[in-house]
Amino acid sequence: MLSGLFQSTTIPVLQEVVSFSQARQAVLAGNMANIDTPGYQARDLSVEDFQTRLKQAIDGRNQPQVRSPGETELAPKPVMAEVAKSSQSILRHDMGNVDMESQVTEMVKNQMRHNLALTILTDQFRQLQLAISGRV
């Protein structure tokens, strides 16, 4: 019953956004750490791919599920994007393609996405706490 309560809210979706942004921040930080490594190719997690998969998971969650009479509801699979192989940076003479400006820009955008998801998630939990306690 309690899992059904949480699954019907935006909490699982926000959890996936937070998990994705944490994983992406680690990849971007790795790019910055290797900025002077000869031949290092920048890596990234595809935001567009993640958003597409998340939308598919949300759409699938809203469709009725047909189950056998004794079958229990399984936890949803995490929605994570695969590492993108291409980068749009300029290739340097040492065959590396990491530039500080684009990495910092992507890290700031990623941090803003992460903070927004955490703010909404905190608000969701606060609303649930108020509903359970019966305080207004």
Fold topology:
Elements: H1 2-7, H2 11-33, E1 44-45, H3 47-62, E2 83-84, H4 100-133
Antiparallel strand pairs: 1-2
Structure at a glance:
The chain is mainly alpha-helical. It has helices spanning 2-7, 11-33, 47-62, 100-133, and strands at residues 44-45, 83-84.
Describe this structure in words.
With 136 residues, the protein is mainly alpha-helical. The protein has one domain. It is built from four helices and two strands. A two-stranded antiparallel sheet has the order 1-2. The longest helix has 34 residues, at 100-133. The chain is elongated. 12% of the residues are buried. Mean pLDDT is 76; it is low at 72-91.
Roughly what is the average pLDDT, rounded to an integer? 76
Widest β-sheet, arrangement of strands: 1-2
The run of helices and strands is: HHEHEH
As a percent range, the share of strand residues is under 5%
Number of strands: 2
Distance between the termini: 24 Å
Rg (CA only): 19 Å
Detail the poorly predicted runs: 72-91
The structure class reads mainly alpha
- Shape descriptor reads elongated
**Total of helices:** 4
Helix fraction, binned, reads: 55-70%
Number of structural units classed as domains: 1
